[in-house]
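Hey team,

Filing this mostly as a record. A colleague (T.K.) asked me to run one chain through the structure pipeline before their review meeting, and I want the input and output archived in the tracker in case anyone asks later how it was produced. No errors, nothing strange. Just documentation.

Input sequence:
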Amino acid sequence: MQHQRLLIQIEGAIIAAFAVALEYIPHTVGPSAIEVSFGIIPIVIYSLRRGAIPGMVSGLIWGLLDLILRGLGNGSVLNVWQGLLEFTIAFMVVGLAGILQRPIQASIQNHTKVKTMTLLWMAAFFGTFAKYFCHFLAGAVYWGSYAPKGMNAWLYSLTVNGGSFIASFILTGIVLCICLAMVPKLYLPKDMVLHVQSEK
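Output structure:
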């Protein structure tokens, strides 16, 4: 049991580091402030493999690393509360996608591909929506002064973060389905993979 916990923790740390690395890929859409977050993808996959709590821990590590490596250096932290919301809570709640861990793993074992793909899109929605809802709140409360003159801060934040949510959601959903088709064992712990293989 202790060995299993250590394995999960190491796996989560590696996934968090991978998520940070993906964020260095250019991800701004056009001239707008809309961004696609590639780091969401490995965190969602890990959450569906290990569950919501390990996923949230990995997301928290991702957020803290992003804060240290990018946030503090490029002026993305305005104050303690904004930094807490956007670099700890927002990244951590991506792991909420893991609430669908058991239904998705059961669906993979039962070879119900359409149901599995539907659940994967739901997981992509939960993870990305949770993250960008936090950014939406922070955008309206803390970044409102950056809105175009005469534009409501809440509307500005909704436009920017809503667009980022949609772009990230679509990309995450597509990649999750591709992974299902090519490497379904990504969503299953080792003991489940062996069980599925023995049934074939």
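Quick notes for T.K.: The two ends are 28 Å apart (CA to CA). Residues 113-142 form the longest helix (30 residues).
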